[in-house]
Amino acid sequence: MAEVKQIPPVSEPGSNGAAAPRKSVSQDENAPHSAPSAPAYQARFAHIVGWGYHVPAKVITNHDLEQIVDTNDEWIRTRTGIAERHVAADPKETSVTLAVAAARKALEVADVPASKIDLIVCSTTTPEYSFPATACLIQNALGAHNAGAFDLSAACSGFVYGLAMARGQILAGDAEYVLVIGTETLSRIVDWTDRETCILFGDGAGAVLVAASDVPGGIMAVELGSDGSGGDTLIVPAGGSAMPTSLESVSSGMHYIKMDGKAVFRFATRVMASATRKVLDRAGFTTDEVDLVVPHQANIRIIQNSVLNQLKIPADKVFVNLERYGNTSTASIPIALCEAIEAGKLKPGYKVVFVGFGAGLTWAACAIDWRTPVEKQSTDWWRATRRQATYGAAAARSMWKRTVRWVYDVLPTDPEAPARDDGKDKETRDAPLKETARSRDAT
Ligand code: ACO
To answer: 217 and 47 in contact (C-beta within 8 Å)?
Structure first.
């Protein structure tokens, strides 16, 4: 567990969780109202203080893919750099379960309880449902009962977009802790008969906790971009308002990823380099000063053609793990960040760049002056037990709320009116109560 106390929150939150702007010592209490001095705010910075990732256990190698599509290990390795990917083979593994596992690890590293989170930003292209937001389901599972939650759709650039949202909330004084998650179960929207796409993608989730601090550093600059004219180069055509799901849309495979690989490749090599240049400029860093680049892990040739060749950043400063995970879209940068930390590639004082591109088309980069200690702390059994207990309590609270909602649903609000019976399957309606009774009996 990392010691994060060196990066304390800037100030005690007010009743709404927001830090109040601090008055400058030079402000005169008796100054006339007609001549107000500009309010002075204490500088705030947004630091990543916790990180975690989770991938499904099932691994599909290139050789496994040779059995289902007309491809071969050599082609996939030389064209993409990918050797294997993790896939959510168990139907119970979803974007939420992967995200919750990653988020719990991030909270453990930061040693911050879920109750302190002010906002959860979940980036995903494979949400649990069209709505409700995947972020809300994660909020419920974590027991983050003080958090707002929303999903963000910017495909593979989404995690960095999420960091930009977190930084904005923190610098504005509206949040002390923001949980940013990238989670994907792309295997569920990949056409496993299409060799041009199914070899590329993998499943997984990564999460970071971003905290307010008065320690200078952290996320120093962000660069976000989009070009919707290229929207059709990487798209899931069906399932939205343009093409609602129908028998025809499913039978023609329109609910799967469609990609113009070459167009995406050209776009990616261009924007990865330009976004990195812009964000470094904005942060006041030179490319020579960069200690670590964590790029979106789509294709080794894209990374070579952009970060290495165009920016001339040496390979030992660029973290790559796509060989073992494939392209996990928005989860790829946080997963790579965690592995870079595990590999000892990141130290306090390092200047770090995250850069990604994706469907939309979108691109995003951020420059970080990393200050958080990264040494792995030994697990304190008492804290671990307490943390587990809070997750148990979160599940119980959720069950209780469902039950109360169910009771309100079946009881007549107007005493004159008969109890509601809209023909809903009684078995389904009774399920939450039965489950509550079962859990109660079990304890
Ligand atoms: N195995 C064997 N041969 C294949 C395969 C395969 N899996 N896929 C395509 N081929 C064949 C093609 O049919 C073609 O054959 P042909 O010359 O007889 O017509 C040949 O290989 C070359 O195909 P290209 O499409 O030219 O291959 P390319 O070098 O462009 O590589 C790739 C394809 C890997 C998809 C590349 O274009 C790429 O990486 N593009 C970017 C994709 C990407 O990053 N997408 C994710 C974006 S992130 C997000 O938002 C989800």
So the answer is: yes
Residue 427 near residue 397, CB atoms below 8 Å: no
Q: Do the Cβ atoms of 78 and 62 come closer than 8 Å?
A: no
| Neighbour-count burial for 252-277, b at 16+ CB within 10 Å, e otherwise | eebbbbbbeeeebbebbbebbbbbbe
**Cα torsion for 182, 188, 192, 195, to the nearest 10°?**
-20
- Distance of alpha carbon 189 from the chain centroid: 19
pLDDT band at 42 (very low <50, low <70, confident <90, very high): confident
Instruction: Supply the CATH classification number for the domain 45-369.
Output: 3.40.47.10
Give the distance (Å) from ligand 1 centre to CA of residue 265: 9
User: Residue 399's closest CA among 29, 40, 391?
Assistant: 391
- Pocket of ligand 1 contains residue 329 by CB under 6 Å: yes
Say if residues 119 and 175 touch (Cβ distance below 8 Å). yes
Tokens of 33: 């109202």
Per-residue pLDDT, 18 = 36
Smallest CA-to-CA distance from 126 within 79, 183, 85 is with: 183
**Ligand 1 within 6 A of 156 CB?**
yes
Query: Domains of the chain: which residue ranges?
Result: 45-369, 381-442
Q: How far apart are CA 295 and CA 304, in angstroms?
A: 11
- Cα 340 to Cα 203: distance, rounded to the nearest angstrom: 19
CA distance 217 to 81: 34
Cβ–ligand 1 distance for 75 under 6 Å, the answer yes
pLDDT in tens, 239-253: 999 999 999 999 999
270: Cβ–Cβ under 8 A, 6 or more apart, which residues?
Answer: 306
Whole-number Å distance between alpha carbons of 337 and 73 = 27
Share of the chain above pLDDT 90, in %: 78
Q: Which residues are catalytic?
A: 156, 296, 327
Give SS3 for 208.
strand
If you measure from the C-alpha of residue 76 to the centroid of ligand 1, how many angstroms do you get, rounded to a whole number?
9
Is 305 in contact with 311 (CB distance < 8 Å)? Answer: no
